[in-house]
């Protein structure tokens, strides 16, 4: 089992499985967007906001919010595979 890291620490294009979402009103808001433990997310952008794809939906998160969501890297995603600053090229189909 891989260690959990903040969502915004995934490499661009990297995928992770949400392991932890902080409790409280933030948890409820994120759950309404489908960001719950067990959901797969792909990091698409880190600046000026964090953009992720999850379940066919593209979501923009404040960097401070993304830093509180912990994920486990899925197979094929390495924390050292690419820089994690910037923006991936636009793909209207949601995958790289």
How would you characterize the overall build of this protein?
This protein is an alpha+beta fold. It has a single domain, classed as Roll (SH3 type barrels), CATH 2.30.30. Helices cover 15% and strands 30% of the residues. It has helices at residues 25-32, 63-68; strands at residues 4-6, 15-20, 40-45, 50-54, 57-61, 70-73. Strands 1-6-2-3-4-5 form a six-stranded antiparallel sheet. Strand 4 (50-54) and strand 5 form a beta hairpin. The protein is globular and about 35 Å long.
List the keywords.
single chain, 96 residues, alpha+beta, SH3 type barrels, six-stranded antiparallel sheet, 6 strands, 15% helix, 30% strand
Question: In summary, what is this structure?
Answer:
This protein has helices at residues 25-32, 63-68, and strands at 4-6, 15-20, 40-45, 50-54, 57-61, 70-73. It has 96 residues and is α+β, with helices and mostly antiparallel strands.
Mean pLDDT level = 85
Total number of distinct structural domains: 1
How would you characterize the largest beta sheet?
6 strands, antiparallel
Write the CATH homologous superfamily: Ferrous iron transport protein A (FeoA)
Shape: globular
**Uncertain residue segments:** none
Strand order of the largest sheet: 1-6-2-3-4-5
What share of the residues does DSSP label as strand, in percent? 25-35%
Topology, pairings included?
Blueprint: E1 4-6, E2 15-20, H1 25-32, E3 40-45, E4 50-54, E5 57-61, H2 63-68, E6 70-73
């Amino acid at each position: 089992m891989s260690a959990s890291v903040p969502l915004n620490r995934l490499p661009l294009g990297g995928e992770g499985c949400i392991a932890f979402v902080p409790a409280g009103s933030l948890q409820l808001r994120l759950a309404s967007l489908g960001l719950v433990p067990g959901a797969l997310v792909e990091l698409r952008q880190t600046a000026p906001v964090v953009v992720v794809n999850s379940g066919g939906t593209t979501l923009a998160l404040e960097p401070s919010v993304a830093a509180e969501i912990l994920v486990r890297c899925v197979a094929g995603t390495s924390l050292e595979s690419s820089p994690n600053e910037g923006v991936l090229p636009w793909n209207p189909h949601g995958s790289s």
